[in-house]
Amino acid sequence: MLGMGVVAGACPRVLMGNAIYERPEKGSAIYLIPGYHPGYAMLGGHTLDLHPDFLRGILPGYQGPRTMVTRIKEADQSIKRAVFPLSGHHISIDHKRQQAFFSSIDGETMVLFDVDNLELLALVGPHQTGYVGGGHAVYLPDDKYIVTTERRHYLPYSGNPKQHYGCITVRDAKTLNVLEAYSCGGINPHDIALMADGRHVAVSNYGSTDWPVAGKILPHVVEPSLTIIDLESGKVVRKIIGSNRNNEIRHVAAHNMDRIFAIQTRMVESSESRALLSQGKEVIDVDLASPEGIFYAPAPLLGLSTTSGNPLIKEIFPKNNLLFRQGQTIIYDPVYDEAIVTFASGNIIAVIDGKSQRIIKIIRTDHMGLHHPRGVALHPDGIHYAVSGSWRDIYLFKRGVHELNRDRCLYTTFYDHSHLSIL
What we know:
The chain has one helix spanning 273-277, and strands at 30-35, 42-43, 46-47, 67-73, 78-84, 88-93, 99-104, 110-114, 120-124, 131-139, 145-152, 165-172, 178-187, 189-194, 200-205, 208-209, 220-221, 225-230, 236-241, 248-256, 259-269, 294-297, 301-305, 312-316, 327-333, 338-343, 348-353, 359-364, 373-378, 384-389, 392-398, 410-413, 421-422. It is mainly beta. The strands form 9 sheets. Strands 20, 21, 22, 23 and 24 form a 5-stranded antiparallel β-sheet that branches. A 4-stranded antiparallel β-sheet has the order 5-4-1-33, with no helix packed on it.
């Protein structure tokens, strides 16, 4: 994998990723939400994964995984749905609000579609044999390029971490042709965040492989890490190993080298859950999205700074650490210098101060009627951010004060997802 500088012109050193645009009118947002289980939705006696009205992107004879997209227009709450041929995870939207790249997770197909009519524009695979989709992608500011994560096939640990390292690919945003493939320097890459300088990306690497011996149900966590890659050279300029090698590092928000936050995930066998929950004093929900036999245990959020020679790592935990279970999505709000993160199994939103890395607010979403919060994204009105529940509903909160705006909430079903996208 060679870095040849083809994206240098697309990665200016000035702040472009957070440019201030004219704010759209109230209610003008369009939401795109994946749906992992279209087979649970029915119309006219057919489940949507097999309904001819929703299969414009499915080629005849296709027998692989299918993921739905629900498109909601906020102004009139109208809904469109389409089913695509992939194991879909995250949707990245170009800045022109015209097309969206639907990343697969551990799958061999990725999709480009029109954000207005949900028509399939292109279907592509990983950059070479032996790789699968990593789950996330990001458009660069000029919309000429899109950067995606790709993993190596999930295989038993070989004893050499480098043999399991994945990559990021730089693709032409229109054709999806691969222009560059750079090693990400980590195992099982997943999330990717473009920094404000437009030049660097941060990649969260699960760090896990399959076990060398059969019979284990938990992932074999080897080297959880966060890597920062220079898009001009393709080099890994920073690599930070997780503070606890039993925890995967799954998602990241990165504004600059001094404002990086990463979600850790700790998975244990269900038999261990009783001991972990023994001190709990309230009724909690079982997250039906948890894999069979697996329990999401508490894991601290990581606050990272890489401005000095030795990266600084801070573990962030509330007094009731059971609230920090199954962290799902994290974003950074540059206006208020805050990180906003959802914890699906904890049924909370946590707000973290960017400078001190302290928890400044915990929002119990289940007390408001929003269960298993997953996606979170800044609203284009510049005033709110949106949070989506695993199976249904979108709630809007006011940035900075984090007050619920009940009048702007939307109530509909998505059929399970991980991340929310807004245009």
